[in-house]
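User: Please fill in residues for this 227-position structure.
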């Protein structure tokens, strides 16, 4: 299927999953994961009404930032090296992958130069798999507290990537655990911290993620085809 039809199909599935969970489908935002995709594919999706795009690699994102003039919201969803932060300062809407205080400090420093505030999510490695980035749960609480002292960063919620399963039901407990953690952190009432967003769910498991409370689903393959 073509990109616009895929987007329409995904939007319908998002609405159904939200309704099944008794949620307003407007509380779930679709982030089209455009890594490895061309600028024309991204514009194709944009013209089909898609405005949020996620990229993993800064060296791939920079030319897209430079060459796409449509009002796109860019999301950084991949592991981020501190020395790359300066290239994206002020140019992205949300960084989903903050997993250490040194990275948060560098984001704060670069956004401070622009007198702007960067919205971020703390990435949590719920499964503890060594191949996945993210902090553990205690580390996430400490990191959120650390970020709350940085004036040019605003923590908006949490992100996770569960292990890969063929059966999306197997991913569900990891989504539920991220939601529980976000409720635990919200109850701490850390100043300046909002637990408004849960970034979880990809092409194979986004419906389960929405049923467990996802507000941002990151979908690549189901929109653009196999990479
Ligand atoms: C690639 C990627 C996605 C999208 O995965 P699909 O299975 O293609 O939907 C989502 N989140 C992250 C962090 C990714 O790296």
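Assistant: Residues filled in for all 227 positions:
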């Amino acid at each position: 299927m073509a990109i616009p039809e895929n987007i329409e199909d995904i939007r319908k599935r998002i609405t159904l999953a939200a309704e099944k969970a008794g949620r307003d489908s407007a509380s779930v935002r679709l982030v089209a994961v455009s890594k490895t995709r061309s600028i024309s594919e991204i514009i194709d999706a944009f013209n089909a009404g898609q405005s949020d795009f996620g990229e993993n690699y800064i060296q791939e994102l920079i030319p897209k930032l430079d060459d796409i003039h449509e009002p796109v919201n860019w999301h950084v969803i991949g592991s981020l090296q501190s020395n790359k932060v300066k290239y994206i300062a002020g140019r992205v809407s949300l960084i989903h992958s903050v997993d250490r205080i040194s990275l948060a400090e560098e984001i704060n420093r670069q956004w401070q130069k622009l007198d702007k505030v960067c919205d971020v999510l703390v990435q949590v490695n719920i499964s503890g798999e060594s191949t996945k980035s993210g902090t553990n749960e205690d580390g996430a609480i400490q990191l959120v507290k650390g970020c709350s002292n940085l004036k040019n960063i605003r923590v908006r919620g949490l992100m996770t990537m569960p292990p890969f399963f063929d059966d999306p039901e197997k991913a569900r407990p990891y989504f539920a655990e991220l939601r529980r953690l976000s409720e635990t952190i919200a109850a701490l009432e850390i100043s300046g911290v909002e637990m408004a967003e849960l970034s979880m769910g990809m092409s194979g498991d986004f419906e389960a993620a929405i049923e467990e409370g996802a507000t941002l689903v990151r979908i690549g393959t189901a929109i653009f085809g196999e990479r």
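For context: Residues 33, 35, 56, 77-78, 161, 202-204, 218-222 surround pyridoxal-5'-phosphate (CB under 6 Å).
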